[in-house]
Structure formats: C-alpha cells, structure tokens
Amino acid sequence: MANERVQVQPQVHPLRIADAKRRIRxxxxxxxxxxxxxxxxxxxxxxxxxxxINVDLTVEEGDVLLEDQLSNVVDYGAVVDGIxxxxxxxxxxxxxxxxxxxxxxxxxxxxxxxxxVRIEKLKVVAEAKSVGVEIERESPR
Length: 141
Hints:
Number of helices: 2
CATH architecture: 2-Layer Sandwich
Strand order of the largest sheet: 1-2-3-4
Distance between the termini: 47 Å
CATH topology: GTP Cyclohydrolase I, domain 2
Largest sheet: 4 strands, antiparallel
Shape: globular
Order of helices and strands: EEHHEE
Helix content: 10-25%
CATH superfamily: GTP cyclohydrolase I, C-terminal domain/NADPH-dependent 7-cyano-7-deazaguanine reductase, N-terminal domain
Radius of gyration: 18 Å
C-alpha cells in the first residue's frame, strides 16, 4: 500500500478557446493594470489601489464574414472600456464582486460563450507579488 501512487485529477479545466472545427475565437485582455477602489479593510476604504485584470473570452465566430469590420467581432477595446466603467461605479468590497461584474458585462454580447476573469490586487500582501481570484462563467444559452 505504501508504494502505491494515487493519481490526482487536475481541478482546473482548460478554457475552450480557438477551435477551428467549432468556429471558436479567443479574445483576450492581458495584464490590464488600473486603479480600483476595492477592499473590505479599513485601510482600503477611501483610496484606490492597483489591480491587474485578465480576461479570456470564448467567442462564437458564427457565419458573419469579417469584412475587416470591427462590428463583426467582439471588440477588446469595448471590454476594456466596460471594465473602466465598472471601476468608475464606486467602491467594491470584494475582488469576487468585480470579477462577477466583468464576466456579466462580457456575457451580454451574445457571441461570448465563456468568460474567464482574473483579478489581482498588487500591493496588499507585502510578501506576495499579487493576491486575487479567478472565475469562469458560461452563457446560459
């Protein structure tokens, strides 16, 4: 018994992205650093702190031709603007709340099937480069 190896199944499943057969495109925002009014601790209230945001979107290409038109794709610039609008909405207690709001915003575009959002607070724990949360949400369609 002592020599038997127990295989542990990974708990993180890969994001379903960039699949030609299923006509899936991967749209992403990497390492977006913004100031956020976020946190539950007294020292975090009334001031902003830097956060890093990463977003990965599984997007159905559909039958629309690109035609080199921004309106025919999910616009990562609109995703960034949406994140900025959420942050401008006032203080949030939890990074989890911020992640959920960003995912919800992204999933409003009917072409987005899955949204994975990672939020990192960059200067909360002196001994850590960052702390935070990552979520994945799927469109109910």
